[in-house]
Write a structure and sequence with these properties.
Structural class of chain A: alpha/beta
Oligomer: heterodimer
Distance between the termini of chain B: 15 Å
Shape of chain A: globular
Distance between the termini of chain A: 52 Å
Radius of gyration of chain A: 21 Å
CATH class of the largest domain in chain A: Alpha Beta
Number of domains of chain B: 1
Strand order of the largest sheet of chain A: 2-1-3-4-5-13-12
Strand content of chain B: under 5%
Structural class of chain B: mainly alpha
CATH class of chain B: Mainly Alpha
CATH topology of chain B: ABC transporter involved in vitamin B12 uptake, BtuC
Strand content of chain A: 15-25%
Helix content of chain A: 40-55%
Largest sheet of chain B: 2 strands, antiparallel
Radius of gyration of chain B: 20 Å
CATH superfamily of the largest domain in chain A: Response regulator
C-alpha cells in the first residue's frame, strides 16, 4: 500500500511538473518593443527568442521600435501596441522613467507587461533580468583586475547614461574595485562614465579619444553590445591590444575577430534569445494565474533556478567567452 | 593696402583658419597631448568621410537648398554594397577589388540622387521637403527590402577591411604600433580636388552658383534648370555614396543606423565653412575648414577634460560661437 502511494505521489509530481512546463507555453499575441530595431542584440531577442517561443506555443508576434534609441518614439510604439489590442507587451525600455506611464495605460487595458532591463519600472507584471547587476559587474571587475595585475587605471564606457543596466554594471565595477582592489582607479576625473551612444561610429571616435586622454589606462569595460566591436577596433588601431584588458558585453558573432586577436580579452555574454524566451514564459505564467517563486525553472538556460524579488525575476547564469571557447558559440 | 588686409581678414576661409588656430592653442593649453602627431592623424581620419559628405551638401546648398537625405543616401549605398558583396564573398568566394566596391556604392548614390532631382524638378518641391521625404523613403526601402541587421567584421568584404587598415607614410610609434596617414584621408582629398575643379572651372559648376544666386536669371542666360538640377543631385548623391562606403569601411562594420542624426553636424560644418545658407556662394576650402573646425571641437572634449555629461552642451556653445563669428563677418563684409 505504501509503495503504491509512493508511486502515485511520484507520478503526480512528475505529471505536475510536465503540466508546469506546458503552462509556460501559452498561445498569446505578443508585441516586442525593443529600444531600437535592427541591431544584432534586439534582432536576436526577437528572432532567437520571441519567434522561437511563438513557434513552440502557436503564438503570434511582431516587433516595433525606433531605429535609434529614442524615448518618445518608443512611447508611441507602446501606444500603438495598446491600440492594436495585443495580449502581451515585452519591452526593453530606453528610458524607464519616461515609458512607465504608457505601460500603466497598457496594463489598465488588461495587457500583460513584461520588461527587460527595466527593474525600476512600476507598471509591469514582471521584469526579467539575466542576472544581478552587482554580480555581473563584480565579475567584470575581477576579470579586469586579473588582467591588469590588480593595479592601474580603468576606463568605463556606458552606451547611454540613461540606461539602468549599463550604469548599474559600471557602478558595480567601481564598487568592486573600491572594495577589493585599492590600487585600481577610474581614469576620468570624478569617475564619470564615458557615454558612447549605442552607435558604432560614435563609440569608435569616443574610444579613440578616451585612449589618448588616459594613456595610462590598463583596462576598459563596455556594456553596450553595439559599441563593443568598434571600441575593440579603436584599441587595436592604437596598438593597445596587449596593454589593455578589455572586458565587454556583446554577442560572439559580432565580435569574433576581435576576440580571436585578443583585442577583446573577455566577452561577457548571454543569449538575448533566451532572455526573450524567459520573458514570454513569464507572461504565460501571468496569463494562467500562476505565481512564480524563487527556485522555479523557466526551462531556458540562465533561468533554471530563478530568483524572484517583488516583480523582478533574475536569472543566475551567463557565459564568459574568450579566445579559447569563442568557437563553441554561434549567436 | 588697408582695404586689402580688411578684405583678406573678412574672407570666411581666413576666419575659419583663425578660429582653428585659436582652438588649437586653447586645447593644447588644456592638454598638451592635443598636439601629439597621433591625435592629428586621428583627427584627419575621423574628418575624412564627413568631409566627403560635406562636399555634396555644399553643392546642394550652393544651388539654394538644404539636403536632408545625404546621410541616408550614403548609408543606403554603403549598406547595400556591403551586404551584396558580403553575400557574394561568403556564398561564392568572390572577392571584389576595392575600386569596384567604391564604384558600386558611388553609382547607387548617384541613382538615389537622381530620384531627388526628379522630386525637385518635376514635382517642383522645395529641396528641404523633397529630400526630407526621400530620406525616409530610402530608409524604409533599405530596412524593408535590403536588410537592417549589422554586417560584422568577419563577414565584411575583405578589401574594405584591408582599406581600413591601410596607412600611408607609416612610421612606428614608441611601442611599435604603425602610425600613419589613413588612406581615407587621401580619398577625401581627391574628392575635394575634383569638386573644387568642377565648381570653379567648369561651366556646369558655374551654373550651380548661378541657379543658386537667381534661378530666373540663370534660365534667361541659358542654363537649363532641369539639367542643372539633375547634375547637382546626381553628383551630390554619388559623393554621398562614396562617403558612405568610406565611413563604413573605416569602422569595419555596416550598421544601418550609424549615420543617423549626423546630418546636422555636417550641415553645420558646411555653413560654418562659409557656404551661404540661401545659396549662390561657398567653396570647398571653406567646407574642409568647417569640418575640421567642428571635429576639433567634438573629438577633443574628453581630451581637454570636459565631463561627458557636458560634452553636448560645450559642443553646442562652441559651434554657436563659430557660427556667430562667421555671421558677424558676413555682415561686416556686406556693409562695406
Amino acid at each position: 500500500m505504501k509503495k503504491i502511494l509512493a508511486i502515485i505521489l511520484v507520478l503526480s509530481v512528475l505529471l505536475f511538473n510536465v503540466a508546469m512546463a506546458e503552462d509556460l507555453l501559452q498561445e498569446m499575441d505578443i508585441a516586442f518593443l525593443p529600444k531600437s530595431v535592427g541591431g544584432a542584440w534586439f534582432t536576436r531577442m526577437y528572432e532567437g527568442g520571441i519567434e522561437v517561443y511563438a513557434a513552440e506555443s502557436g503564438s503570434t508576434s511582431f516587433q516595433s521600435g525606433p531605429s535609434a534609441g529614442d524615448a518618445a518614439a518608443q512611447n508611441r510604439c507602446v501606444q500603438d501596441a495598446v491600440a492594436g489590442g495585443v495580449e502581451v507587451i515585452a519591452v526593453c525600455p530606453f528610458s524607464p522613467e519616461q515609458i512607465d506611464a504608457d505601460l500603466g495605460k497598457a496594463r489598465e487595458d488588461g495587457i500583460i507587461v513584461i520588461s527587460n532591463e527595466g527593474s525600476t519600472l512600476v507598471n509591469i507584471d514582471y521584469d526579467i533580468e539575466a542576472f544581478k547587476n552587482a554580480d555581473f559587474g563584480a565579475m567584470a571587475a575581477d576579470k579586469m583586475a586579473q588582467g591588469m595585475g590588480e593595479e592601474g587605471e580603468i576606463i568605463v564606457f556606458v552606451g547611454s547614461l540613461a540606461s539602468t543596466a549599463h550604469v548599474g554594471w559600471a557602478q558595480a565595477i567601481v564598487d568592486r574595485m573600491t572594495e577589493a582592489y585599492p590600487n585600481i582607479a577610474v581614469a576620468n576625473e570624478g569617475g564619470v562614465f564615458i557615454e558612447t551612444g549605442n552607435n558604432a561610429a560614435n563609440s569608435y571616435e569616443k574610444a579613440k579619444e578616451a585612449l589618448k586622454a588616459y594613456p595610462n589606462a590598463k583596462a576598459c569595460f563596455c556594456p553596450s553590445s553595439t559599441d563593443t566591436p568598434s571600441i575593440a577596433l579603436a584599441i587595436q588601431e592604437a596598438g593597445l591590444t596587449n596593454q589593455i584588458t578589455y572586458v565587454a558585453v556583446g554577442l560572439p558573432n559580432a565580435t569574433r575577430t576581435y576576440i580571436e586577436d585578443g583585442s577583446i580579452d573577455v566577452l561577457m555574454s548571454w543569449d538575448p534569445g533566451e532572455v526573450a524566451q524567459a520573458m514570454c514564459r513569464a507572461a504565460a505564467a501571468v496569463k494562467t494565474g500562476r505565481e512564480l517563486k524563487t527556485g522555479d525553472d523557466l526551462g531556458v538556460f540562465g533561468f533554471n533556478s530563478i530568483i524572484v524579488e517583488d516583480k523582478v525575476i533574475t536569472g543566475t547564469e551567463w557565459r564568459m567567452i574568450t579566445a579559447e571557447n569563442v568557437g563553441e558559440y554561434n549567436y | 593696402m588697408k582695404t586689402n588686409v580688411r578684405r583678406i581678414a573678412l574672407k570666411s576661409e581666413v576666419l575659419s583658419l583663425l578660429l582653428i588656430v585659436l582652438l588649437c592653442i586653447a586645447f593644447s593649453i588644456a592638454n598638451p597631448a592635443f598636439f601629439h602627431i597621433i591625435n592629428i592623424l586621428d583627427l584627419l581620419k575621423v574628418c575624412s568621410y564627413p568631409t566627403i559628405f560635406a562636399c555634396g551638401v555644399m553643392i546642394v546648398l550652393i544651388s539654394g537648398g538644404l539636403d536632408m537625405s545625404f546621410m541616408w543616401i550614403g548609408m543606403f549605398s554603403a549598406y547595400s554594397t556591403s551586404k551584396m558583396l558580403s553575400l557574394l564573398q561568403v556564398g561564392q568566394g568572390i572577392v571584389m577589388p576595392l575600386p569596384v566596391i567604391f564604384a558600386i556604392s558611388t553609382c547607387i548614390g548617384a541613382l538615389l540622387g537622381s530620384f531627388n532631382a526628379l522630386l525637385v524638378s518635376k514635382f517642383r518641391l522645395p529641396v528641404f521637403i523633397a529630400t526630407l521625404s526621400s530620406a525616409n523613403i530610402f530608409m524604409g526601402v533599405m530596412f524593408q527590402f535590403i536588410g537592417s541587421e549589422y554586417i560584422f567584421p568577419a563577414q565584411m568584404p575583405v578589401r574594405m577591411i584591408e582599406f581600413s587598415k591601410t596607412l600611408l607614410f607609416t612610421t612606428q610609434s614608441a611601442d611599435g604600433t604603425p602610425v600613419g596617414l589613413h588612406a581615407s584621408v587621401l580619398v577625401a582629398a581627391g574628392v575635394c580636388l575634383v569638386v573644387h575643379f568642377i565648381m570653379r572651372y567648369t561651366l556646369v559648376g558655374r551654373s550651380v552658383y548661378c541657379i543658386g544666386g537667381d534661378e530666373a536669371a540663370a534660365e534667361r542666360v541659358g542654363f537649363s534648370r532641369t539639367r542643372t538640377r539633375l547634375f547637382i543631385f546626381m553628383l551630390a548623391g554619388a559623393i554621398a555614396g562614396l562617403a558612405g562606403i568610406v565611413g563604413v569601411s573605416n569602422i569595419q562594420v555596416a550598421n544601418p543606423y550609424d549615420f543617423q542624426n549626423r546630418e546636422l553636424t555636417v550641415t553645420a560644418a558646411v555653413v560654418i565653412g562659409g557656404t551661404r545658407i540661401t545659396g549662390g556662394s561657398g567653396s570647398v576650402i571653406g567646407v574642409v575648414l568647417g569640418v575640421i573646425l567642428t571635429n576639433i571641437i567634438s573629438q577633443n572634449l574628453v581630451l581637454i577634460g570636459v565631463q561627458p555629461e557636458y560634452s553636448k552642451f560645450v559642443f553646442g556653445i562652441l559651434v554657436l560661437f563659430a557660427a556667430t563669428v562667421q555671421g558677424l563677418q558676413t555682415k561686416l563684409r556686406n556693409r562695406k
